[in-house]
């Protein structure tokens, strides 16, 4: 499982970084084309469509590294054991929330299939899909983290 | 409404990641309310990211990481040192000057304050400054980075409050410099009082050396000029300037300074991806809340409340500043901007304040929140890198805190400080 997650993470990071670089190029090209060549009107639309993928895949990447911001002042005062249980409780809540978004996000994709981007012959479903797919990756990470935390807690208990 | 607010606060205090602490109660509202459909929540989440002005956020984040990887900071330190290193408390003044220079390239202070601490803390120790004084200087001087354009906080404020980001950028110039000058005065006073650098008088650097160090960072110093000129003349939008900044800094790093490598470039991209994921995921979740607030007509209700209240405008205003200060000390600054801007703008407009002017005040107050306990991000960063206890940071920071509050008062009472430049330019 750990190896699977490592491989997925690597692909995800490379893909997201490439998309971000591409967005920079698209917006810069659109700005320059206004002055130099004929304006490229689709590039901003394309940049925005790609951006939603950077957002959700980047959020997944941040979740893997436990980098999402929180306020730890209060729980830092609790004993380790209690803190771990709170953490597992919160992660379960996150998992349920993500499952909701995946389900309704997938439904929304089907609904949006007919809608096209403003200046781009592409279905809006490819934009919408970023949410359920990003959240699916986050759900896998969350469940994996819950399992890993539980395992290490039981290992600690067995030792003491 | 209160129930959802309480769930949000409870999750927040239990150390739930902020994005989920916002998203979970907001979705709960969609499930409980029979008139709302859950797919709308998902749709708002996605729509919340589909904004051209918001693209400036990842661009300036990336440009900031690239700046740090391009050897720009070390050259700017040399130039600042040549200018001010010889006076009493010189290295502390260098830290302020460096923040002004970096402020013209970087959109947020978090990454830069770490870099500045690593570079300047050893030099400050060498000169025999108190550790507490040094960390206080590093943390407070970094605040101006987020006010001097570009500024990610102001992009978010402009996005949520529907205020011109170009105007906000230009409005931040004078207040940012004012903050730096206030910090410099405090340093000057303290350095004299404590006799820093008195034992070994140093000579002023020769003009040719100042010029030599200036040339080495010429291209980095040129960027803020280009930024203001292109935005002012409408050549680029702030988002396009962000994309331009990425190209510009890469060109400096690869071609001129030759310190940027492909590996460092990839690392900067990866770091920007994670930072973007963190901040934009919060924005996506906040978009659900925005929909809920709008459908409950909360901003209008709050404005009406302020309108009908007997409290004089000044009392309302001071309460707002206090609220921002407290919120800024507990929650990360960009989150405060995202959540409170739509509620606060109608109130200050009722008082007769300009939304651009208030944006600058809000950005400064929230930055101050970042260097005060319990959750000052910059404060923690500086103290942990310098290995100085928070207590000694706090003991030395009161005078700087007061100076910043004085700047807040000045920018609040004198609209010209923020509005003169944007009005002159448009």
Can you describe this structure in just a few lines?
Chain A is mostly helical.
Unreliable sequence segments of chain B: none
Largest inter-chain contact set: A-B, 54 and 58 residues
Number of domain units of chain B: 1
Beta-strand fraction estimate of chain A: under 5%
Strand order, largest beta sheet of chain A: 1-2
Q: Please give the radius of gyration of chain A in angstroms.
A: 20 Å
Number of strands of chain B: 0
Order of helices and strands of chain B: HHHHHHHHHHHHHHHHHHHHHH
- How many DSSP H or I helices of chain B? 22
Amount of helix of chain A: over 70%
Assembly level: heterodimer
Structural class of chain B: mainly alpha
> How many E-type strands of chain A?
2
Give the overall shape of chain A, derived from the CA principal axes: elongated
Query: Which class best fits the helix and strand makeup of chain A?
Result: mainly alpha
- How many helix segments of chain A? 5
What portion of residues of chain B belong to β-strands? under 5%
Main pleated sheet of chain A: 2 strands, antiparallel
| Average predicted local confidence, pLDDT of chain A | 91
The percent range for helix content of chain B is over 70%
Order of helices and strands of chain A: HHHEEHH
Structural commentary:
The complex is a heterodimer of chains A (160) and B (426). With 160 residues, chain A is mainly alpha-helical. Chain A contains five helices and two strands; from the N terminus they run αααββαα. Chain A has helices at 2-35, 42-64, 80-111, 125-128, 130-159, and strands spanning 116-117, 120-123. A two-stranded antiparallel sheet of chain A has the order 1-2. In chain A, strand 1 (116-117) and strand 2 form a beta hairpin. The model of chain A has no long low-confidence stretch (mean pLDDT 91). Chain B has 426 residues and is an all-alpha fold. Chain B has one domain. Chain B is built from 22 helices and no strands. The longest helix of chain B has 34 residues, at 262-295. Chain B is globular and about 75 Å long. The mean pLDDT of chain B is 91. The chains are: A mainly alpha (160), B mainly alpha (426). At the A-B interface, helix 1, helix 2 and helix 3 of A face helix 1, helix 2, helix 3, helix 4 and helix 14 of B.
């Amino acid at each position: 499982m750990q190896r699977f997650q490592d491989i997925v993470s690597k692909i995800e990071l490379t893909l997201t970084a490439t998309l971000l670089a591409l967005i920079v190029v698209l917006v810069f090209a659109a700005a320059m084309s206004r002055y130099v060549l004929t304006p490229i009107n689709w590039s901003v639309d394309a940049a925005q469509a790609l951006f939603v993928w950077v957002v959700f895949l980047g959020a997944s990447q941040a979740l893997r590294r436990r980098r999402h911001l929180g306020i730890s002042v209060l729980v830092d005062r609790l004993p380790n054991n209690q803190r771990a249980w709170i953490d597992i409780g919160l992660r379960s809540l996150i998992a349920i929330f993500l499952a909701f978004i995946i389900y309704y996000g997938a439904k929304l994709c089907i609904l949006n299939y007919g809608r096209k981007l403003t200046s781009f012959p592409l279905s809006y479903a490819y934009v919408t899909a970023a949410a359920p797919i990003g959240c699916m990756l986050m759900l896998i990470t969350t469940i994996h983290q819950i399992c890993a935390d539980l395992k290490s807690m039981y290992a600690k208990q067995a030792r003491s | 409404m209160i129930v959802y607010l309480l769930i949000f606060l409870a999750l927040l205090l239990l150390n739930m990641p902020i994005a989920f602490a916002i998203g979970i109660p907001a979705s709960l509202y969609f499930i409980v309310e029979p008139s709302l459909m859950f797919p709308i929540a998902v749709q708002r989440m996605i729509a919340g990211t589909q904004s051209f002005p918001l693209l400036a956020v990842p661009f300036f984040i990336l440009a900031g990481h690239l700046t740090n990887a391009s050897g720009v900071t070390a050259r700017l330190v040399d130039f600042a040192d040549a200018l001010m290193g010889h006076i009493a408390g010189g290295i502390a003044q260098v830290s302020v000057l460096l923040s002004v220079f970096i402020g013209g390239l970087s959109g947020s202070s978090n990454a830069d304050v770490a870099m500045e601490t690593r570079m300047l803390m050893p030099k400050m120790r060498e000169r025999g400054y108190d550790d507490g004084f040094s960390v206080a200087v590093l943390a407070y001087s970094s605040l101006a980075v987020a006010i001097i354009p570009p500024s990610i906080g102001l992009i978010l404020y402009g996005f949520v409050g529907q205020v011109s980001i170009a105007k906000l950028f230009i409005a931040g110039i004078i207040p940012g410099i004012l903050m730096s000058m206030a910090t410099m005065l405090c340093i000057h006073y303290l350095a004299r009082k404590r006799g820093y650098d008195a034992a070994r008088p140093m000579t002023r650097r020769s003009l040719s050396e100042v010029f030599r160090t200036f040339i080495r960072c010429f291209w980095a110093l040129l960027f803020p000029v280009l930024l203001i000129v292109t935005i002012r003349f409408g050549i680029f939008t702030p988002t396009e300037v962000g994309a331009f900044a990425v190209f510009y800094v890469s060109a400096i790093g690869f071609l001129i300074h030759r310190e940027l490598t492909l590996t460092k470039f990839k690392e900067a991209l990866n770091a920007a991806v994670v930072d973007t994921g963190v901040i934009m995921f919060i924005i996506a979740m906040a978009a659900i809340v925005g929909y809920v607030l709008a459908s409950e007509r909360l901003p209008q209700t709050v404005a009406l409340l302020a309108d009908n209240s007997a409290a004089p405008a000044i009392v309302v205003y001071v309460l707002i500043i206090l609220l921002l200060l407290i919120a800024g000390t507990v929650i990360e600054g960009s989150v405060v901007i995202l959540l409170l801007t739509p509620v606060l703008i109608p109130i200050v407009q009722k008082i007769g304040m300009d939304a651009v002017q208030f944006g600058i005040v809000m950005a400064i107050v929230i930055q101050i929140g970042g260097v005060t306990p319990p959750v000052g991000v910059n404060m923690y960063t500086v103290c942990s890198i310098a290995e100085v206890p928070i207590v000694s940071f706090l003991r030395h920071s009161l005078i700087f805190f007061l100076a910043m509050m004085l700047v807040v008062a000045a920018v609040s009472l004198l609209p010209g400080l923020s509005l003169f430049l944007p009005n002159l330019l448009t």
